[in-house]
Amino acid sequence: MNIPSLEYILSVTYLWIKAGHVIFVIFWIAGLFLLPRYYIYHQEAAPGSQEEKRWIERERRLRTIIITPAMILTWAFGLTLAWQGGFLTSGWLHAKLALVIGLTAYHGWMVGYGKKLARGVRPASGRTLRLMNEVPGIATAAIVVLVIVKPF
What we know:
By secondary structure, this protein is an all-alpha fold. It has one domain. 82% of the residues lie in helices and 0% in strands. The protein has five helices and no strands. α1 runs antiparallel to α2, α1 runs parallel beside α3 and α1 packs antiparallel against α4. The longest helix has 39 residues.
């Protein structure tokens, strides 16, 4: 009995892997749009109030159930696609990876900020959080241009 090679399996499943990548990118970016908004509302809640406790729980669930798993699956599917598609030496992919690494760092910063909020520390202003809310949109627009146009 012939066992199919990994390359054969990946070539047959390439479009499924690509679909999975796009699906989890959407989940991740949607969560990254939503999380700073949650933090803005959280900061406006009275410290120690029931409303603040509800925001802490909402934020925790968003981070642990949606955003972090989506980020991990985005990376897994994306790296598989880059390897399978032979894009590892492409300049556009290197630029995309730099932006995705930046988004991953932003994700980490947002997770850390949420943990500070849960402890009652509010180091950033609402204005700063509103500006931070723009990061995923700008990065996503640049990534889409790199993937679709492949300028280099």
